[in-house]
Amino acid sequence: MNHPNVYGAQRLPDHSVTGHGATSVFLLHGAFGAKEYWLRQTEALVAAGYRVIAWDAPGYGLSPMPEDFSIESAARACVALVEARGTDTNILLGHSMGGMIAQRTFDYCPERVHGLILSSTSAAFGGRGGEWQKKFVADRVAPLDAGKSIPEYAPLMLENMFGPGSANSNTDLVVQVISRMREETFRAAIEAVTHYEGRDVLPKMNIPVLCVAGEHDLSAAPPAVMEKMASKIQSSEFVCMPGVGHFGWAEDPEVYNKHMLQFLTKNFN
Question: What is the pLDDT of residues 37-46, one digit of tens each?
Fold first, then answer.
């Protein structure tokens, strides 16, 4: 299959490679994020014998911003990364926007993706240009339009996305990493998420898939929405983590990592 040369031979998205092994787990952060916030997952995966590749999506960290920022363009960049850094077995763990990118990456190169962990994400965000989508974007960029910087308003925005009482040193890291985002990336990512339509990919998934939701994630990726998505995938498992919101892997990494490793052990060892 010929893939558009988004990064290709010129430059891959910035990424880290940690650990060794024949099974690689690619960590794809959300619209709010960067590769540094996967610390606890990287530790757990490497200790269990997996090789971990954590990327900065196009426009994040040191990865250049593409001319056309979209889930599809990011997925093409992810294909280039998997082809360049992948091993015999490749698992994509995508959170939120990263889960959308993971789904479309599988669609573009199913022969190279052997499993998916879809975390607090969905297969679609409604319809392009709908009133709910416009409000979603406006609510999140309004502080920028009012002259606030991301470090000024990100902590409160993220606090509202965590489950009650779940703040800890790991969620502090999430806030620190997200506070370093560039404004242009923040705006482009929020817009891209609302345009994604990937329900066509779900019936094609003939690989093991784990869908992980958070009990209190009622606005970004509600558990009922994720459970419905899982029902459309033939080889899927659905887990709803109690007590957490949108960032379950940071709010309760012990429980999240347990589900992650059980899924990997069951299907790829």
Answer: 999 999 999 9
**Dihedral class, residue 15 (left if φ above 0, else alpha if ψ from -120 to 50, else beta):** beta
Q: Sign of the CA dihedral 16, 19, 22, 27?
A: negative
**7: in domain:** no
pLDDT for 178-189, tens place per residue? Answer: 999 999 999 999
26 in Cβ contact with 82 (< 8 Å):
yes
Q: How many CB atoms lie within 10 A of CB 164?
A: 9
**Quick check: 34 and 174 in contact, CB under 8 A?**
no
Tell me, yes or no, whether 3 lies in a domain: no
Q: First-to-last CA distance in the chain? A: 29
Domain housing 48? 15-268
pTM of the model: 0.93
**Domain count of the fold of the chain:** 1
Angle at 42 between CA 105 and CA 209, to 5 degrees: 40
Nearest to 74 by CA among 201, 211, 193, 182: 193
- Which residue type is seen at 218? L
Alpha-carbon span 92 to 203, nearest angstrom: 18
